Amino acid sequence: GAVVSQHPSRVICKSGTSVKIECRSLDFQATTMFWYRQFPKQSLMLMATSNEGSKATYEQGVEKDKFLINHASLTLSTLTVTSAHPEDSSFYICSAISPSGQETQYFGPGTRLLVL
Amino acid sequence: GESVGLHLPTLSVQEGDNSIINCAYSNSASDYFIWYKQESGKGPQFIIDIRSNMDKRQGQRVTVLLNKTVKHLSLQIAATQPGDSAVYFCAENFVYGNQFYFGTGTSLTVIP
């Protein structure tokens, strides 16, 4: 089946620093990936759609200068949280559309970000 | 079409009983729906999907029902097992885009 990985799985950083999270499709090519954010005991909130070779599409209310997305290849999308603050602490999850012809999304294992 | 970020509803069932988890979706233009299972600290796992031209689809121990009239989706789990304990989300896909929007989710606890 389609496998999506994320790195790192956990990261702790100081306030004001930037953190990069990688999302990789391991056994398929993904022209489109998605980034979600999830707070404890809440649902997943779509942040942006990452398109290979073009600019990401951000959901309303998501600051594109704060959450930089780069989809440089068909197997890698990165999310950089710039000048992170404690309120950015969250669980960040990426997904990629399966190449099977259906629109099913396969999710990565998530990255737990803690900003001190 | 955004998910609602409120506290999760909970459902407790006895092992071996059937579970029914409900979801109300927001957009009548949605044409594809997926149920996901999420265990603590992990990403969501695909369970079953259904398109808007169907009202029922069955998988292994799971059945999804779709009622487009009232924009309601349900997931039925037969003979619930302790390993089924997790948070379950429905996600809807709009016909004119490939983004998915998640429902609130339900936390299922199976009592041995």
Q: Outline of this structure?
A:
The complex is a heterodimer of chains A (116) and B (112). Chain A is built from no helices and eleven strands.
Topology:
The complex is a heterodimer of chains A (116) and B (112).
Chain A: E1 4-7, E2 10-13, E3 19-25, E4 32-38, E5 44-51, E6 57-58, E7 67-73, E8 76-81, E9 90-97, E10 105-107, E11 111-115
Parallel strand pairs in A: 2-11
Antiparallel strand pairs in A: 1-3, 3-8, 4-5, 4-9, 5-6, 7-8, 9-10, 9-11
Chain B: E1 10-14, E2 19-24, E3 30-38, E4 45-51, E5 56-58, E6 62-67, E7 72-77, E8 86-94, E9 100-102, E10 106-111
Parallel strand pairs in B: 1-10
Antiparallel strand pairs in B: 2-7, 3-4, 3-8, 5-6, 6-7, 8-9, 8-10
Structure notes:
- The complex is a heterodimer of chains A (116) and B (112).
- By secondary structure, chain A is an all-beta fold.
- Chain A is 0% helix and 53% strand.
- Chain A is built from no helices and 11 strands.
- In chain A, the strands form 2 sheets. In chain A, strands 2, 4, 5, 6, 9, 10 and 11 form a 7-stranded mixed beta sheet that branches.
- In chain A, a hairpin with a 5-residue loop joins strand 5 (44-51) and strand 6.
- Chain B is mainly beta.
- In chain B, 0% of the residues lie in helices and 54% in strands.
- Chain B has strands at residues 10-14, 19-24, 30-38, 45-51, 56-58, 62-67, 72-77, 86-94, 100-102, 106-111.
- In chain B, the strands form 2 sheets. In chain B, strands 1, 3, 4, 8, 9 and 10 form a 6-stranded mixed beta sheet that branches. In chain B, strands 2-7-6-5 form a 4-stranded antiparallel beta sheet, with no helix packed on it.
- In chain B, strand 6 and strand 7 form a beta hairpin.
- Residues 1-6 of chain B have low confidence and may be disordered.
- Chain A binds chain B through residues 4, 6, 32, 34, 36, 39, 41-46, 49, 59-60, 91, 93, 95, 97, 102-110, 112, and chain B through 2-8, 32, 34, 36, 41-46, 49, 89, 91, 93, 98-105, 107.
